[in-house]
Amino acid sequence: MATQTLNHADAHHDAAHDEEHHPGLAHHFDNMEQQRDSGTLGMWVFLVTEIMFFGGMFLAYMLFRASNPNEFAAGSYQLDVLLGGINTAVLIGSSLTMALAVFFAQTGNKSLLVLFLLATILLGFVFLGIKAVEYGTKFSHGTIPGRNFKVEHKKMEEYEEHHHGDAAANVDPARLQMFFVIYFMLTGVHALHMIIGIGVMSVLVFFALRNRYSPEYHSHIELAGLYWHFVDIVWIFLFPLLYLIGRH
Amino acid sequence: MSSINSPFDKPFEQPVDSPGGRMRPVPAERNYLNADYSVRSWLLTKDHKRIALLYLFSVSFFFFIGSIYAMLIRLELLTPKGDLVQAATYNKLFTHHGIIMIFLFLIPSIPAILGNFLVPLMIGAKDLAFPKINLLSWYLYMIGAVIVSSAIMIGGVDTGWYFYVPYSSNFSNTYVTLAGLGIFVLGFSSILTGLNFIVTTHTMRAPGMTWFRLPLFIWSHYATSLIMLLGTPVIAITLLLLVFERTFHVGIFDPTIGGDPVLFQHLFWFYSHPAVYIMLLPGMAIISEIIATFSRKNIFGYKFVAFSSIAIAVFGFLVWGHHLFSSSQSVFAGMIFSFISFAVAVPSAIKVFNWTATLFRGSISYDTPMLYALGYIGLFAIGGLTGLFLASLGMDVHLTDTYFVVAHFHYVMVGGTLLAYLGGIHYWWPKITGRLYPEGWGRFSALIVFVGFNLTFFPQFLLGFLGMPRRYHAYPPEYQVLNVLSSAGASILAIGFTIPLIYLLWSLRYGPKATDDPWMATGLEWRTSSPPPTENFVETPIVTWEAYEFAPQETMKVVGKLTPDDKPDRSSYSGN
Amino acid sequence: MSEHIVSKNLYFLIFGALMVLTAITVGVAFVNLGPLNNVVALTIAVIKALLVILYFMHVRYSSRLTWLVIVGGFFWLAIMFVLTSSDYLTRGWVSFTR
């Protein structure tokens, strides 16, 4: 017959008791801790799906680079490493401001929470602005994948000079396109995630200004933070894989 | 009134003799169905039970659309000549049949309908962890379904349901892009359902509901959710790449400018092979419940069955290469994939053996759900074992793209999943609607389905082995006898699906009222009223019995009164 | 509340480390190390990602379940890469024709 012992942890009861009537507690949860744990787990599980989503593109990157190594090096050479580097710094900076926003949410400092959320949004816009400049340059040179793909000859000459007499100088211009396909897919989907993140963050600023968050209730901020850091991590891999091959 | 065992009699008013000697009108019991009748209360509901019903209507609708395509296919194949439709039309028929049945019916069917309804009830929760996301997933399903349907209505798709490049990217001038986008949206719906189940299983269990007291239904749905979460994003990106390729002609899958068509097949089957287990595992979930209830025995080897679900989910991700045996995939990789494919048979066999062992010396009753379950075991065994033929590298080269493959996966998908789905609908019908279906008609139609199914698909094994390729609208005359048998079987099958539709709808109005626990089963879903109240349980249940413990019903009462500060068992993950 | 609050100074420290690692990865890219270039670039990227995950995302202080979810995610990514590579790297090892 069944054991009559109950396995739930009695230790949690006291902590749970005094917050049972919190206005932020949804009807189907028993207490705030259960609600927060569910949210956090849900976000992490969602991020795992994001890993697999980007993973498909990284797999394509790996296979295409393996079959077209010189074309990838030449393509990478045509990107602006300075702008890419600045953007990396900007995005890491925005991760810092996001982490600080979470800190001030935990400690209940509303004005600094709003300030750092706004700073994160601002840095996000800076990143997207620089990205737009890079895209614009590519558009003006016609190095856009598709039927009208054009090779930027000045950059190609620079690259060939750099690798003079080198096996790496052997580039098939038709296949150069593959690098830019992957470049635009990866950075485009990444930028889309940034835009979504900025949208979410703007809503959070609105909520924060209406005093919705407190040290007991700020899961939204934490979850948005997890998402934002994830987008940062994707870029941490994109930067060396796209901008830094074929520099030496 | 409700059953003698219900601990929830008290909250509902009993009929009482009034002083005048006449029965006072009995107020209807408050439940999730009669809580509110407005359209708005359905379309904006956050109740998992109502969302399950929304799914039931929409998914059933698409099942019947998909069936119409199947009937057209079988009608065309009645004669060797392609005399009903042209070749190009036939290509669209089987593509539409495949897309609708797989993406709009099989994948959402059991998880989104029965899973949605039962997961919170079985673990003793008030709802899924994210009710709004649950509703969102239904809307995404509807949006995806509308996009796919519009692609079909404005001209259709002719690539086959797996959209192989380069045909789908460079040559087909049908609405591949639109269909791809629709499936992309459907994928998000599936991901959100899986996410909800995973989180709910971890954080929403009632006090005393430990991992090994969970019904096997939950274990299987947990495994299904893992696949939804880990596989679906990959098909999303694959279809996105295909849409890009078609829209901008960028050559991702075009070898002439450095692309790679085999990459498409790898990415596609990385999802689509595990997706087979998205369709299969929930069926197994239902069978475990039905077998235990109608043998009145604990499942033989509970932990083995539980972990075999997880093992199927994991192994399922390691075998996709067996769909590429006849592509340019390396033969060495083919051997590896072939070997691992055989390994998947082990956890599947564990389930079949354990169900059989559960039947041994059980007190078996042959009610409708049990008939479906027994049919399932036999048909799934045939479907699974013929899968091993196809997993053998050499054999597969002969059988690839023949009717043998078609018969194999229909034995698994229809003989397996669809039978389990029908069994599950019958089994939980009293709980969902509060009404009993007519048992005689139920048994009769279960037998019709079984006969019709075998007559439809067994001849296809023979056809395939003789070399009849799939996806052609005409065939040599010597194949006609077997094809006629198959088409005749399809007609019987159609009758077998129509009878339940009629009597289930009939039972909504005329069926006898169901008690709380009409099958004398063990799960928590039977410890509340039929149909359940909106918040599922009047008091948070405390579980003190093991899964499938057919103890005297009094001892399975939901004991004790729980104060709101009690919380689910979380000892399994919080830091110990 | 079992929530762990990471101190501000630790955040600044991690930020500094990430910036230094970014500078290193750019610098190394201009030096020809042969195939080692990829190894170095990816190693640095993994270290940076770990720093973000462990500290900015608080995983160092999270439950075992969170760890399991993350490790599971990367494990599945590895399955996709390894098994796909098992095709591309072994083409021609075994042949149907003699």
CATH topology of chain B: Cytochrome C Oxidase, Chain A
Quote the beta fraction of chain A: under 5%
Helicity range of chain A: over 70%
Largest sheet of chain B: none
* CATH homologous superfamily identity of chain B: Cytochrome c oxidase-like, subunit I domain
Q: List how many beta strands of chain A DSSP finds.
A: 0
Rounded to the nearest angstrom, the radius of gyration of chain A is 24 Å
Number of strands of chain B: 0
Oligomer: heterotrimer
Average pLDDT of chain B works out at 90
**What would CATH call the class of chain A?**
Mainly Alpha
Instruction: Please trace the helix and strand order of chain B, writing H or E for each element.
Output: HHHHHHHHHHHHHHH
CATH architecture annotation of chain A: Up-down Bundle
**How many distinct folded domains of chain B?**
1
Number of helices of chain A: 8
Overall, the morphology of chain B is: globular
Under CATH, the homologous superfamily of chain A reads Cytochrome c oxidase, subunit III, four-helix bundle
Can you give a write-up of this model?
The complex is a heterotrimer of chains A (248), B (576) and C (98). Chain A has 248 residues and is mainly alpha-helical. Chain A has helices spanning 12-17, 32-67, 69-77, 81-106, 110-141, 153-162, 173-209, 219-243. Chain B is built from 15 helices and no strands. The model of chain B is unreliable at 1-24 and 559-576 (pLDDT under 50). Chain C has one domain. Chain C has helices spanning 8-29, 36-56, 64-88. In chain C, 28% of the residues are buried. The interface between A and B is large, with 53 and 62 residues.
